[in-house]
Amino acid sequence: MDSSGQGSSMNAGVADGMTLPPGVTEEEAEEMQMELIKVEDEIETLRQVLVAKERHAAELKHRLGISPLSEIKQNITKGWHDVQCSNAYMRTSQTLGDLNRRVTSSNLYLTASATLEDIGRSDAYKRTQETFSQAGQVTSAAFSSMGSAIRSRFGEMRNSPSFKSFEDKVENMKYKVMGRANGENDHSPTSNNAPM
User: Fold this and answer.
1) How many CB atoms lie within 10 A of CB 175?
2) Is the pTM of this model over 0.70?
3) I need a labelling partner for 96 at 20 to 30 A (CA). Which of 2, 37, 47, 111 fits?
4) pLDDT band per the 50, 70, 90 thresholds, residue 10
5) CB-CB neighbours of 70 under 10 Å
6) CB neighbours of 58 closer than 8 A, spacing ≥ 6?
7) Is residue 64 a contact partner of residue 190, using CB atoms and an 8 Å limit?
8) How far is CA 93 from CA 79, 85, 87, 102, 104, in A?
9) Could you give the CA distance from residue 82 to residue 89 in angstroms, rounded to a whole number?
10) Where are the alpha helices (DSSP H) in 86-106?
């Protein structure tokens, strides 16, 4: 922005009969207009610096091998840790602990607990428990092998050239969108200007 060109047009606007707020002189209005132009220029400069810094950070992350997925995982982990450390979470945890102690020491709970113990000693319960235990072991083994296969396949995909190419295109698109939003050119400093 060229403040000299805009400053003169703003001064003309003040001088050409622009309605001034009560208690503001024409000189004060001109000074405020000049200060406004200066502040807007500074804001634009800061936006450009921020875009450049974000680009540089993205380049460094890319060179360090930090992917957007690992950033998301780290952000979620940090967010969950922050929630667990919050006063609200701690108070809620304390309240639930107190409630649990009250319930487990009540007569109703003790009577129900004794009844459940009697059921737990019955033969029918033991047979049912054994059947569920076997089914659980089979299911657990199936999920474990399926999880290993999926994890292995994702590992292969992550290291494949097509995934890396896709990741580069997404990053390139980010630069193009941010560049357009900030009035800059469409070329990422890390791209080879290949079309998407």
Assistant:
1) 22
2) no
3) 111
4) very low
5) 11
6) 171, 174, 175, 190
7) no
8) 17, 11, 10, 14, 16
9) 10
10) 87-104
